[in-house]
Structures are given as structure tokens and as C-alpha cells.
């Protein structure tokens, strides 16, 4: 059976109990089901009304609900859609869902199925679907704004424009090939097109050269606290998190594993990672903690290398100097006095902090916010937000390069390179050969969306 001939339903408003629960239906049976649930006058499309919901089996009243009817294709899914805004008690919702289950060709929705139908009905492209998923998951204001731009089509529109340019260029080349004996097709058309395509290639390369800002904003900057044992890393983490995330004791080597906490710094997402203290004389378990610490540090955007006056200084591992991460020196426990020895490496920032007296904490927070703004602050142009976008764009550039540089080769081969390049852009928005991607993209959606 074609699943889009079935009507689906689910709670779309989150966990119960709640003040209001929204139950959504989508599909061809939505209108007939609503007529049997409410009796009386059918609501006007896109206008809310208060109605009693009647049990179709025994005729009892299920609830008093606010009803919204959206006639397709003017709905989120592009199908006839109903929203029942019921009271959010578990018994009420269970009774309404039980009533819906009695109708034929009607079943509970799967994860992301409403959005998947919106995609299949051309209400959203895949970049907009991904933007919607990011909007639901957004934890900071910057993530929300980026997701909103993508859901509104900024990224998909850009890629569609580029694809249209490639398709139009290929059509002009084929026209010159097919109608070369016609007077109205100048011989220089193809030459002019390749100049324009070289400019397009440069635009895509510039788009790729974004230091992964969009992806980093989506996942959050990784900031790793690193340094010798008892340098105050865990105390600092608890202070920044404003709760007891890590155990703090005078005993060296208390932190054995990697601890993470998600922070919102000035609207930007930051994952702060506390790690085992770096030292030579460590036991087997502690050595594993140190290994994990270095693995996280090598992938970090920022390393906070900590020192304390009462702790023997350790050398920053050489591998981290080559990792590409920015490194700051934090002189912790500054209330105990100055630090005698420093590492020899150069650092971007050096900040004195004291958790006990809260000295330097505002400076550290301000510096972290500035670092986030520099690295993942939103810019005017749409940003790449996923690795799959980057992969297809990179392949598009390779196909374009091959066509541009193949001067003297048969025009049919160069036209084929343009077709491949255009197809790579089409796969990003989901209009070409993406069925194998859909399960992956929709599996993380919640039921009811």
C-alpha cells in the first residue's frame, strides 16, 4: 500500500502531562475523521474553533478541544491536516488516540513522518528539513538563528541557483552542438559559458572556505581544560557550569575520565571538557584517562592549558602544538600567588583566575564569548551546516574543474562534467537520487514532527 494514502496521527506537543496537548492528523482521511469526531458544522480552513470531541464507538464526550483544519495543499505536509488542541492529561490524550485508532486506513505516525511527507510533497527541500531538525534541537540563540535561516530556505535557494546556472549552461552548450549550422547560435557561446562557469566554481570554493563555521555552530565549540593534576581544572569547570559537574579533592589524579558540560556563552554553544591531569607517574587507569584527554585536546577548537602556583609545571605535549587548536594559558589559583615557571610555547591569551575569590572569571568569560563570536558568529552568507553538504560541494567543484580545464576535448564530455556537477547540488537539496539518505536524515526526528 502507498503509505501516503494512509492517514497518520501523533501527539506533536511533547511530554505529558501538560496544559495542552496537540494531536496532529495528516492524510486523506483527516477530513472525514474530523466530521465524525466533532459533529455539527465543519470548521473553516485555517480558522480555530472550540468543539466537543465525541467517541465514535460509544458516543461519549472525549474532551473539549480547540480545532484547526488545514485543507491540502495549504498545510505543513501538503495534505489535508487536522490539529486537535486537547487538555494535556494522559487519560484524555490516550482516549483521543484510542478513538483515532478505530478508523480504517489510519495509523500512528513514525518518527519524522509528517516532515517526510512535507518533503515528498515539495513543501520542504532537504536543507530545509535539516534546518527544521536543527531548530528543534537548538540550545542557544545563535543556533536558533542559523537553523531559522536554513529552514527559511537560505541554503537551499543558493544551491538551487547554482544548479540552475549549471543546467542552463549545459543546455546552451548542447544547443551549440545540435544547431551549430544555424545562424542564431553564435560560435562563441560555449567560450563565454566556460568563463562564467569558472566564476561559479570560484564562488563555490569561497563558500567551502568557511573554516567550518556552520558545522561548528551547529555542534558547539569544543573547549578542553588541560594541564597537570591539581591545577584547578575541575574547580574551574564547576564554576563555569555553575553546578558540581566534577569531583574536587586535594588528591592528585581525582579526574580519571573525560567530563563534558554544555554552556551557552553569549548565545553561542560551547562544550567544556574537563580531563585527567597530565603527568608521567600515573597508574594504568589514570594513563587511560590521560590518553583520552589528549585525544579530545587534539580535536578541540580551544585548549585552556592550566598552571597553579603549588603544582609542578608540565610541558604541553608537542602533538597539541600542531593540532591547529588555539591555546590559552590559564594561571589558576591566582589567589595563592604568581606562577614561577612558564612553558616555552607562545600563547594567544594568558589569564589569571581564582575560583575561590572569583578573580579573573569575568575576563575569562568575556574572552571565551569573543572567541566564540570570532569562530562561529553568523555572517551574511548562508553557512554549510553538515558534512554531507561539504562532500557534495567538493565533488561539484571537482566536476566543474574537470570540464573547465578540458579545453580541446569533445564538447559532449565537458557537458557530462556539468551534468555531474549539477547532480551533486541536486543531491544536497534532495531532488536527485536521495532515497538512501532519507532514513538517515529522519531517524533523529521525534514522533509527531
UniProtKB/TrEMBL annotation:
Q: Which residues bind (6S)-5-formyl-5,6,7,8-tetrahydrofolate?
A: 24, 83, 123, 449
Question: What note does UniProt attach to the cofactor annotation?
Answer: Binds 1 potassium ion per subunit.
The residues that the entry says bind GTP are 230-235, 249-255, 274-277
Please name the InterPro entries in this protein's record.
Answer: G_TrmE (IPR031168), GTP-bd (IPR006073), GTP-bd_TrmE_N (IPR018948), GTPase_MnmE (IPR004520), MnmE_dom2 (IPR027368), MnmE_helical (IPR025867), P-loop_NTPase (IPR027417), Small_GTP-bd (IPR005225)
Main localization category: cytoplasm
User: Per its database record, what is this protein's job?
Assistant: Exhibits a very high intrinsic GTPase hydrolysis rate. Involved in the addition of a carboxymethylaminomethyl (cmnm) group at the wobble position (U34) of certain tRNAs, forming tRNA-cmnm(5)s(2)U34.
Keyword terms of this UniProt record: Cytoplasm, GTP-binding, Hydrolase, Magnesium, Metal-binding, Nucleotide-binding, Potassium, tRNA processing
Look up the EC number in the record and give it: 3.6.-.-
Name recorded for this polypeptide: tRNA modification GTPase MnmE
| Biological processes per GO annotation | tRNA methylation; tRNA wobble uridine modification
Quote the subunit structure annotation: Homodimer. Heterotetramer of two MnmE and two MnmG subunits.
Gene Ontology molecular function terms on file = GTP binding; GTPase activity; metal ion binding
Among Pfam families, the record links this protein to: MMR_HSR1, MnmE_helical, TrmE_N
Which EC class heads this enzyme's classification?
Answer: hydrolase
| Domain called TrmE-type G: residue spans | 220-373
List localization entries: Cytoplasm
Q: Which SUPFAM superfamilies match?
A: P-loop containing nucleoside triphosphate hydrolases, TrmE connector domain
Q: Which family does it belong to?
A: Belongs to the TRAFAC class TrmE-Era-EngA-EngB-Septin-like GTPase superfamily. TrmE GTPase family.
Which cofactors does this protein require? Answer: K(+)
What would be one Gene Ontology cellular-component term for the protein? cytoplasm
Instruction: Show the PANTHER family listed in the entry.
Output: TRNA MODIFICATION GTPASE GTPBP3, TRNA MODIFICATION GTPASE GTPBP3, MITOCHONDRIAL
Give the binding site residues for Mg(2+).
Answer: 234, 255
Amino acid at each position: 500500500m502507498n503509505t501516503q494514502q494512509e492517514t497518520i496521527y501523533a501527539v506533536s506537543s511533547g511530554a505529558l502531562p501538560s496544559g495542552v496537548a496537540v494531536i496532529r492528523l495528516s492524510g486523506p482521511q483527516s477530513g472525514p475523521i474530523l466530521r465524525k469526531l466533532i459533529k455539527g458544522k465543519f470548521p473553516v480552513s485555517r480558522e480555530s474553533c472550540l468543539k466537543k470531541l465525541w467517541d465514535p464507538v460509544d458516543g461519549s464526550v472525549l474532551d473539549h478541544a480547540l480545532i484547526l483544519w488545514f485543507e491540502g495543499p495549504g498545510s505543513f505536509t501538503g495534505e489535508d491536516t487536522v490539529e486537535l488542541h486537547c487538555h494535556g492529561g494522559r487519560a484524555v490524550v490516550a482516549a483521543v488516540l484510542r478513538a483515532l485508532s478505530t478508523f480504517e486506513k489510519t495509523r500512528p505516525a513514525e518518527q519524522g513522518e509528517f516532515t517526510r511527507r512535507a518533503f515528498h510533497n515539495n513543501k520542504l527541500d532537504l536543507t530545509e528539513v535539516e534546518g527544521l531538525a536543527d531548530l528543534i534541537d537548538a540550545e542557544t540563540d545563535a543556533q536558533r538563528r542559523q537553523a531559522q535561516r536554513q529552514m527559511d530556505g537560505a541554503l537551499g535557494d543558493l544551491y538551487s541557483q547554482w544548479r540552475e546556472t549549471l543546467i542552463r549552461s549545459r543546455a546552451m552548450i548542447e544547443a551549440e552542438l545540435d544547431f551549430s549550422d544555424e545562424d542564431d547560435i553564435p560560435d562563441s557561446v560555449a567560450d563565454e559559458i566556460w568563463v562564467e562557469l569558472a566564476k561559479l566554481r570560484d564562488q563555490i570554493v569561497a563558500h567551502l572556505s568557511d573554516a567550518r563555521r556552520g558545522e561548528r555552530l551547529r555542534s558547539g565549540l569544543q573547549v578542553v581544560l588541560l594541564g597537570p593534576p591539581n591545577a584547578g581544572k575541575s574547580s574551574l569547570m564547576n564554576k563555569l557550569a555553575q553546578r558540581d559537574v566534577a569531583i574536587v579533592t586535594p588528591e592528585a589524579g581525582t579526574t580519571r575520565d573525560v567530563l563534558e558540560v554544555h554552556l551557552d556563552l553569549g548565545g553561542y554553544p560551547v562544550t567544556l571538557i574537563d580531563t585527567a591531569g597530565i603527568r608521567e607517574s600515573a597508574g594504568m587507569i589514570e594513563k587511560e584517562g590521560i590518553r583520552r584527554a589528549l585525544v579530545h585536546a587534539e580535536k578541540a577548537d580551544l585548549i585552556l592549558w592550566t598552571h597553579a602556583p603549588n603544582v609542578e609545571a608540565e610541558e604541553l605535549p608537542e602533538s597539541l602544538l600542531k593540532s591547529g587548536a588555539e591555546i590559552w594559558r590559564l594561571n589558576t589559583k591566582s589567589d595563592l600567588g604568581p606562577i614561577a615557571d612558564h612553558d616555552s610555547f607562545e600563547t594567544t591569551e594568558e589569564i589569571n583566575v581564582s575560583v575561590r575569590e572569583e578573580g579573573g572569571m569575568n575576563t575569562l568569560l568575556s574572552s571565551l564569548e569573543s572567541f566564540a563570536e570570532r569562530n562561529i558568529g553568523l555572517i551574511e552568507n548562508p553557512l554549510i551546516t553538515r558534512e554531507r553538504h561539504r562532500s557534495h560541494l567538493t565533488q561539484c567543484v571537482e566536476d566543474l574543474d574537470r570540464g573547465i580545464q578540458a579545453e580541446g576535448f569533445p564538447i559532449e564530455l565537458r557537458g557530462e562534467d556539468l551534468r555531474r556537477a549539477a547532480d551533486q547540488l541536486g543531491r544536497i537539496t534532495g531532488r536527485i537520487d536521495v532515497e538512501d539518505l532519507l532514513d538517515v536524515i529522519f531517524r533523529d526526528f521525534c514522533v509527531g514532527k
